[in-house]
Specification:
The chain has about 230 residues and is mainly α. The protein is built from five helices and no strands. The longest helix is centred in the first third of the chain and has 87 residues, at about 5-90. The relative contact order is 0.09.
């Protein structure tokens, strides 16, 4: 069959149009695939970011709960230490010091219970940890009071660490709970430093130790208004 020039031109135009359509369609398809792939990539990045944020939040929360749990253990350990010191003082006939330390033991246990009550209100999952046996012998009264001071200093550092974690987590309720604990630590450290300084002078002033012991007896201590 012979093709006229008009027919040939028409056929060529159709072929060119078909090729253009094919290229255009292929471009659209490629771009759709690329767009789909890019969208999927964005979704994966967003999902990974969400998982990272969630993971970091969980790690931060877990560290806070772990440290909080450790502070409960610290308070119970301090209670045991003061109780052991009270027993030692009683054996030395230091009745006033024994009574004072017995009260301090009760106070430290009260701190632990306060932390536990707060944890229950906040649905913190706590686990009581085993307590190491406290020291039960000291060379002398000065060594005893120095060990108590060091224990309070260590407890202050632990409370500060817990407070830092609470601040980082923006846990305002926990921060408020810890504020009175910090002030009590300031008072305890001051009282213990004063007692250590006084006892250190005992060799220069005969009878000073018994005088200090008498001052710590409940019946001779000034009453504190509550």
């Amino acid at each position: 069959m012979k093709l006229t020039m008009t027919t040939l031109r028409a056929t060529t135009a159709m072929l060119l149009a078909a090729r253009t359509f094919h290229r255009t369609n292929a471009f659209v398809v490629r771009n759709k695939v690329a767009a789909t792939s890019l969208t999927q990539t964005f979704r994966e990045i967003h999902h990974a970011g969400m998982e990272t944020t969630s993971h970091e939040g969980n790690v931060e929360e877990n560290e806070l709960i772990k440290t909080y749990n450790k502070q409960v253990t610290n308070e119970l350990t301090a209670s045991q230490l003061y109780l052991s010191a009270s027993l030692w003082c009683r054996r030395q006939d230091l009745v006033g010091m024994a009574a004072y330390m017995r009260e301090e033991s009760d106070e430290e246990r009260g701190h632990a219970l306060e932390l536990i009550d707060f944890a229950n209100q906040r649905n913190f999952h706590l686990q009581l940890q085993p307590l190491d046996a406290p020291p039960h012998e000291w060379k002398n009264v000065l060594e005893l009071w120095e060990s108590l001071l060091q224990a309070e200093l260590d407890n202050t550092q632990a409370l500060n660490h817990l407070a830092d974690l609470a601040d980082n987590a923006h846990d305002h309720a926990l921060s408020a709970l810890l504020d009175p604990f910090h002030m009590e630590q300031v008072e305890s450290e001051d009282a213990l430093r004063t007692m250590v300084a006084k006892i250190a002078d005992e060799g220069k002033t005969p009878g000073l130790l018994r005088q200090l012991d008498s001052e710590l007896a409940p019946e001779t201590r000034p009453k504190v208004e509550k």
